[in-house]
Write a structure and sequence with these properties.
Helix content is 62%, strand content 10%. The chain is an alpha+beta fold and 441 residues long. It is elongated, with a radius of gyration of 34 Å.
Length: 441
Amino acid sequence: MDQQVVQQEVGQSERFERRRLRMSTLINTRWIAVFGQSAAVTFVAAWFGFQFPVVACFALIAISAALNLVLTWIYPANRRLDPMSVFGVLAFDIMQLAALLFLTGGLENPFSVLLIVPVIISAATLPALYTATLGFLVVTAATVLVFSHLPLPWYSDVALDIPFIFVAGMWGAVISSVAFTAFYVYRVADEARSLADALSATELVLQREQHLSALDGLAAAAAHELGTPLATISLVSKEMDRATTEDDPLKEDVRLLRAQADRCRQILSQLSTLNTTSEALMSRLSLREMIEEVVDPHREFGVDIATTHEGDGSAEPVMRRNPGILYGLGNLVENAVDFARNRVSIRLGWSQERVEIDIVDDGPGFPSDQLEKLGEPDISMARGALRSRKGGPGLGLGIFIAKTLLERSGATLHFSNGPQPGTGAKISVHWPRSSIEAEAA
């Protein structure tokens, strides 16, 4: 269990490492804060004429602007900052804003809600420990500002008496906003990172499958390009064979050269037919042929795989060889074989409107509390042991990749369990027949 926690923490750190905040993004965000603070101080002092430490406020704003200039001078705009550097800048922003609020009324100032902004930025870009530390800093600053601050800028001839319960309410609003928004933004950003990682893995898998499918064409092209120089080698070797006598020491080498050249011509001839004779046969498959191709690699693992088919009397669907469909179905079959006790049943069905594939195993089934989440990336590893007969984790990225690839082909997936707990799992895949036949055409 401790090893799983360590692996999760390492994986999370690597994901944040790959998505570090750019210097230009942080600098531009801070310039917006500098201009906004300057405009607010200027407007309150010039338009309303309120009395407050204007010079001290502009000095604090100038310090923030100077930090921006220093960061711009030191680091290039496209520099990816490490988490500690971003944490330091955001902590400075909290203290600078807290100092401004101290000069302008503390939590009585309606702008005190802006204390939560650095925490939100941290929640979206930094690991949880940094965000929690910044949240604690905001709570500390807000608590100090409740009891220690200069008067709120107001008309000099009007007494302003704000009840303490209002200030306490502002304190509660800031604290609850920090907690809620930080948690919400962190979860949303984490889900987006998980989805991006899973989609990247899906693209790599699909590219690999497409690359393998294209190898026959590349082999045929190579055979065509090598044909001419090999014919020249064969012609020259024949002339050398005729020009040498039987007792010539080079005679045996020349005949070996001719034999190897002929062998190369035979190999190239076979390669050149991969994209012509076999392509017409292999580029399109019937539904049953496709399932047999998917199932065949998984028949040697001690689990009986039975396939059945039924139709409404219409012709069996013919599908184009699609690496995404083959890999996606293969992933689902592998999952069923891995978790089945003795048997996996695959039912094929088709009609004039639909094509259906049901994959059923007799294993422990999917955890009931995870059924709605199947197909999402980065499902908790803890529930994997409930599904796997080997006691290891499962159902995370593999199911997501399979679901994504099949949905790209127009399929709809449905996950369910048997009628009784522990009586197996069922995955149903449905396509509109028109989409499959249009793709094959």
